[in-house]
Specification:
By secondary structure, the chain is an alpha/beta fold. Helix content is 35%, strand content 17%.
């Protein structure tokens, strides 16, 4: 069973294929006291090596500022919790030493930005880490989350990884689990995944491309609005062209005007699928079909 389909309390070193290269990275996540990214009140670290979770750390930090109620409601940390905790300037130097020898992975660049601003606040040099965005790895690995739906919770639901969101250590562990799942899904090495995540003009046919189309008036389904989700057996652009030729107006996202949602492979449980189900519960008429039903 893959690591991310287990709870992280299981054996930390997961098996790897015989041809896999050795690699290691450190996943990191922070929580903040208020809207200022520098107001870090918790930092979580998860060390991954050769396909498995090796060790984790979690530290509360006194942000030396007031807490916003909205932030407290998200992560549950308040002034009392951090009253005896060290300041960022005390705790970050040893953390920086730990991170300096490994790629540092976070889900989006929010955490990098927060650490950079906290360093500036306390007059610390911002280290030149090799920073990797796990959300971009996921967006390249799974076509249907290239534009939306690449949030950490949605991705963890996708790969079957159970975790408690908005705890820095839990988020760091989940971030690493997403990377491992993406490697297995794509068969990329870690190095290849990093390269893919940094491509800005990738030629790959990922779902984030704008595939809106206006249906041909002579088509049988003219006036119907159709949306694709999940992996398709053909490129998203080609599928959109075929649908438009049958009269469908093709849109990128599900809305109240959507008539049909087409589920490709792995389309079940995507953000678009969940949105369609929500709208159906509200009384809107949306037909959910498989790719085989819409195209033979």
């Amino acid at each position: 069973m893959p690591f991310w389909r287990k709870r992280h309390g299981a054996k930390p070193e997961a098996s790897k294929s015989s041809d896999a290269k050795e690699y290691a990275f450190i996943a990191i996540d922070v929580e903040t006291a208020n809207s200022d990214p520098a107001s870090i009140c918790q930092i979580g670290i998860a060390i991954y090596t050769n396909g498995g979770l090796f060790k984790t750390y979690s530290h509360l930090i006194n942000p030396d500022c007031i807490f916003n109620d909205q932030n407290i409601n998200i992560h549950g940390i308040d002034e009392e919790d951090v009253a005896q905790a060290p300041f960022f300037s005390e705790i970050f130097p040893p953390i920086s030493d730990l991170l300096s020898d490994y790629p540092v992975v976070s889900h989006t660049m929010f955490d990098r930005n927060a650490i950079q601003k906290a360093c500036k606040k306390y007059g610390l040099a911002f280290p030149n880490f090799d920073w990797v965005d796990s959300s971009m790895i996921a967006r390249r690995a799974w076509t249907d989350v290239a534009q939306t739906g690449y949030g950490l919770l949605n991705l963890c639901n996708r790969i079957g990884f159970d975790y408690v969101p908005h705890d820095a250590k839990e988020d760091a562990i989940a971030c690493g689990a997403v990377v491992l799942a993406a490697l297995e899904h794509t068969k990329w090495t870690f190095e290849q995944a990093v390269v893919e995540s940094r491509k800005r003009n990738s030629s790959s046919k990922w779902a984030g491309k704008n595939v809106t189309r206006t249906g041909e008036a002579r088509g049988e389904f003219f006036g119907k609005v159709l949306v694709f989700t999940g992996d398709l057996p053909i490129s998203r652009s080609e599928a959109a062209d075929k649908a438009a030729s049958q009269g469908f107006t093709v849109k990128n996202n599900v809305s109240k005007k959507t008539d049909i949602l087409v589920l490709g492979r792995s389309g079940d449980g995507t953000t678009k699928h969940k949105r369609a189900l929500e709208l159906i519960e509200q009384g809107f008429t949306i037909e959910i079909v498989t790719i085989e039903q819409i195209f033979t």
